[in-house]
Design goal:
Length: 206
């Protein structure tokens, strides 16, 4: 990770810590308007910047090996952030993830690979990573972690059938998942999506 923006309330006083992941071609600073719209004043936000503005080089539905070693390096970078937060005394239940597009895919993949009870995941247009999502791959217990995935029903980059299958796999791991589709073809984050995601994932903090 090239750099890390820390914003929001001071980590030592925060009621929650959110790791925020931008999309392909995006920037860490470009996620700040989304955080302003979510309006979570008691949160600290950690926003890493992907090298070259991308977390992995190819689409999220190719063979995982095609995206290595970049995918693993990105996941390890997130894991290091999680470890640093926990070293400060924050439990995993206080750690949240917010992501858009490629960043949403990465957030979902991270919690699937490192399952435990997290505060929640707000994934705007994302799904689990890999060419196939075999049921036996998804083991471990997310223990009631709330996961929101919102997207267009006709997004050309992230098919809704992959999003729904991702939701099923995460549910089988014990997450409480809400998938919300919108009848448009826009690759964006809608105001209604922000409201719904905040209500589902951050309801204890609103």
């Amino acid at each position: 990770m090239d750099q890390l923006i820390q914003t929001g309330t001071d980590r030592s006083r925060a009621r929650g810590i959110a790791i925020v992941l931008h999309g392909r071609g995006g920037t860490a600073s470009g996620m700040k308007p989304l955080l302003a719209a979510l309006d979570l004043p008691e949160f600290a936000f950690l926003i890493p910047q992907a090298p070259g503005n991308t977390w992995y080089p190819y689409g999220f539905m190719v063979d995982e090996s095609d995206n290595e070693p970049f995918l693993q390096q990105s996941l390890e970078g997130i894991h290091a952030l999680v470890a640093s937060v926990q070293a400060e005394g924050q439990p995993s239940s206080s750690i949240y993830f917010i992501g858009f597009s490629q960043g949403a895919c990465l957030a979902l993949e991270y919690v699937a690979r490192y399952p435990r009870f997290y505060g929640g995941v707000c994934a705007f247009t994302g799904g689990l990573i890999g060419k196939y999502l075999p049921e036996e791959k998804y083991q471990g217990d997310l223990a009631g972690t709330t996961i929101f995935i919102g997207a267009s029903e006709r997004d050309i980059h992230v098919p809704m059938n992959r999003i729904r299958l991702s939701g099923e796999r995460l549910s089988q791991m014990g997450a409480v998942v809400k998938v919300l589709g919108f009848d448009d073809a826009l690759h964006t984050i809608r105001e209604e999506e922000i409201v719904a995601g905040k209500e589902f994932v951050f309801r204890e903090h609103t």
